[in-house]
Design goal:
This protein has 352 residues and is an alpha+beta fold. 38% of the residues lie in helices and 24% in strands. Helix 2 crosses helix 8, helix 3 runs parallel beside helix 4 and helix 6 crosses helix 9. The protein is globular, with a radius of gyration of 21 Å. The N and C termini lie far apart (44 Å).
Amino acid sequence: MTRLDAGYSYEVDAVDEDTWNQLLGHFTDANIYQSWSYGLVRGGGRDISHLVVKSCTRVVGIAQCRIETVPFLGAGIAYVMWGPLWALQHHRVDARTFRQIIRALHLEYVSKRGLLLRINPLLFEQDHSWAMAILREEGFSHSNNGKGSRTILMDLNPSMDQLYEQLQPHWKRELKAAQKLPLQIIEGVEDELFEQFIAIYKEMVSRKKFIEPNDIHEFRAIQRGLPAGQKMHIMLCRSSEGTCAGLVSSAIGSTAIYLFGATSRIGLKYRGSYLLQWKLIQRLKEKHVPQYDLNGINPEANPGTYKFKTDLAGEKGRDLRLVGRIESCENRISSFCVTIGERLNTLRQVMT
């Protein structure tokens, strides 16, 4: 069993919720998927594990794992979503720190607990080839479904005038048209706003007949558990006919994430989604958030959304692909149980 390098150590399940929330604030790569509330809600109250890596006494990396095991066997999976976190504020990228937290995760969940460890890291193929080399050296490989999704990152450091000039002509026209209409924007973090957003979101899902990638009700529950500084931001656009569009975003670390968007049937003519995105960018700049993740593009399956996002980001938007799911396992029973469980789950989805 490979140990951590001299001077490094790790602790597991030694922090409480308040401490974890404070630790998130030290990392620029912090995100809602590594929040305590997300883990608790997504795990359905089941086992959530928190690992903290230190260099001497200073915390340099953290990871939240959702664990599912088979009763009596102890076999199962530990899953890390958009983690681990290792990019400390006001520090340079440190490949050695990344290696230590990856090694600590392997030591604890693969070697010690005998679980299949699956990580969906916040790493991009174009920017983090060095990290993939470390992952392979530490015993990880892509899972069978490991191909990462694409997204667009928008640099928010330019001025609002400069960002406006970067918009594609179509996006500018739609924004100008929306700005001339008597539309009202309501924003906040309250549960009442989330409830109103869900109403138009569900209407849109029904109208477009698409499968929801995430359970919106789970995110409403997550919102209730998040501390004030980590809550999702909800924005609604209203016309004289009612709520016409809505948007939900999250900005815990240095990158804001577009989570949900919706346009109601009556709102199709008002172009409220353009106005909301532009207002959100303004809010993010006021909070000095330097980057905006438009969170998922698929030109083939959803060309309309792809065009909306690429036109917003403009020619300087970065089209990136996440490295995808990687995993490691030394226990054949865990590997077998996870494989069978996933096949049964796929079969259940096909039959429903």
